[in-house]
Amino acid sequence: MFDLELLHTLVCVVDEGSFTRAAERVHRTQSTVSQQIRKLEDSVGQVLLVRDRSGQQVSATEHGELLTHYARRLLNLSREAREALNTEASVVPVRLGVPEDFDATRMASMLSGFVRARPEARLETVSGMSTDLRRQLESGEIDIALVKREAGSGECHASWPEPLVWVCGHGQDVQAETLPLALFPQGCIYRQRAIRTLDKARRSWRVAFGSHSLTGIQAAVTSGLGVSILPNSAVLPSHWICSELPPVPPSELALVSGAQRLSATHRGLIECLRAEISRTL
């Protein structure tokens, strides 16, 4: 294994063409530099440098040129490794949870400015049902979450009302005796809203399609597989808003965090999301 300090000395001598100037560059005495070169030559079993007739100018032998080439690469790799370790030490993991039914493109657009402004942040996002995200917050698996919930149901950093509407495919009969529904799984507030509203209105219903995915629910509505409740932001041009069905109260979009203390980087993400969501809603 090569000694990086000796390789650095070799590169300096080759670059300067002089033991004296190389010694000044590495802040060593000339005799120390000469000893380091001899030690390196002994370790490789080759003459690496030769002096000219005046004894003042030094040049690399063929083996010296070859080793100098590799020495530069090894020194660069060593420097890159140190920089990577220093950068890694300054990285702040930021774990964000977002609802399964939140528009991924919209969220990516919101987060792009934060990532540019906070290069120290290592942002990790997970998606899931709001009930799962709250559980992950409590267990410390994520730091911050955007959740759907009942209005005013706990502390939060910011909250926004989320108007909800019934949607169906164009031409779909919503006066059918048993209304087919396209719903998210148990625990979803939209599912709860749909079932409670229909039960209160004494309308018969059945689950015709179920999915964790917003795009899956949207596609099911478009194709006429079922009627669903969605936020205004998720209504597509291929959907028809069903004013014939009983209106549903809005849910709430809330920005919450776990019990652990938040860093300045975490608070920066909260401020970013607060501003971006307020701007887009």
From TrEMBL:
<keyword id="KW-0238">DNA-binding</keyword>
<dbReference type="InterPro" id="IPR005119">
    <property type="entry name" value="LysR_subst-bd"/>
</dbReference>
<keyword id="KW-0805">Transcription regulation</keyword>
<keyword id="KW-0804">Transcription</keyword>
<dbReference type="GO" id="GO:0003700">
    <property type="term" value="F:DNA-binding transcription factor activity"/>
</dbReference>
<feature type="domain" description="HTH lysR-type">
    <location>
        <begin position="2"/>
        <end position="59"/>
    </location>
</feature>
<dbReference type="InterPro" id="IPR000847">
    <property type="entry name" value="LysR_HTH_N"/>
</dbReference>
<dbReference type="GO" id="GO:0003677">
    <property type="term" value="F:DNA binding"/>
</dbReference>
<protein>
    <submittedName>
        <fullName>LysR family transcriptional regulator</fullName>
    </submittedName>
</protein>
<dbReference type="Pfam" id="PF03466">
    <property type="entry name" value="LysR_substrate"/>
</dbReference>
<comment type="similarity">
    <text>Belongs to the LysR transcriptional regulatory family.</text>
</comment>
<dbReference type="InterPro" id="IPR036388">
    <property type="entry name" value="WH-like_DNA-bd_sf"/>
</dbReference>
<dbReference type="Pfam" id="PF00126">
    <property type="entry name" value="HTH_1"/>
</dbReference>
<dbReference type="InterPro" id="IPR050176">
    <property type="entry name" value="LTTR"/>
</dbReference>
<dbReference type="InterPro" id="IPR036390">
    <property type="entry name" value="WH_DNA-bd_sf"/>
</dbReference>
